[in-house]
Amino acid sequence: MSPHPPRTREPILNLPAVVTLSLLALIGIHAARLLLSDESDFLMVIGWAVIPARWSVAMGGVPVEEVMKGLRDGVPEDAAASLTALAQYVLDDGEGRPWTAITYAFLHGSWAHVLINGVWLAAFGTPIVRRCGALRFLLLSGAAAAGGAVLYAMMNPLQVLPMIGASGAVSGLMAAASWFMFAPASWHWEGRLTQPHERPRESLWHMVRNRQVLIFLGIWFAANYVFAFVQPLGLTDASIAWEAHLGGFLAGLVLFPLIDPLPARQRRFPA
């Protein structure tokens, strides 16, 4: 026998299967859209995207005339005609299409858009899957996507332009991971330090006193502000739906303790 045991080759990207399949779905759908005609791609976007005015008319009792008046009053004349035509097309059937609160997350505006979301999905989805499993990961992602869609629609009730992208779901995963990623390490029963996904969930008391958590949240909010309102160096080719980011983040922050299979870290009061 050789005195040196054979080396096992580690995979370059050690991602859980459900995260890999999610990434392939996002990339595959965007690639498939490039093969569609402009008309077919337009119909797909209109059918899958979140369009707040469609929800407002179908489920909120807002008259179509109010949407049209908002378009005439709130945009320049050169853009009003095209937006009015889009609104008439979108609102003509009177359907609310509530399922678009999920399907919009599968569409992206560019390769940069899908790849950036894919990187963050891999980074924050992986510890969630390793901690909670595939099913809870999917449920949390869907809930965060829906939370982002709902807040965006609430803050832009007369908007007729489609809103797409997985950023709301990714923001929810970021918020969920912040509950445990910055928790202090401890010794595992196997004689090693615990991985971040193995650590007890922080309580709100510990989170507001954890400098790493506060820095992480501060950077997240600052980045959203910069890309939404400043858009530096032309890095974005469309408006950033910061409302969807915030809605997804809040959904992930609130819902994660309800699905977390591990107990929270016990709060200890000073003597």
TrEMBL record:
Chief localization: membrane
UniProt entry keywords in alphabetical sequence: Cell inner membrane, Cell membrane, Hydrolase, Membrane, Protease, Transmembrane, Transmembrane helix
Superkingdom to which the source organism belongs: Bacteria
Pfam families, A to Z: Rhomboid
GO terms of biological process kind: proteolysis
Any GO MF annotation of the entry: peptidase activity
Domain Peptidase S54 rhomboid: 96-255
InterPro entries with a match to the protein in the record: Peptidase_S54_rhomboid_dom (IPR022764), Rhomboid-like_sf (IPR035952)
Cellular localization per UniProt: Membrane
Annotated SUPFAM superfamilies: Rhomboid-like
Membrane topology listed for this record: Multi-pass membrane protein
Residue ranges crossing the lipid bilayer per the database entry: 12-35, 101-123, 135-154, 160-182, 213-234, 240-259
Protein name: Rhomboid family intramembrane serine protease
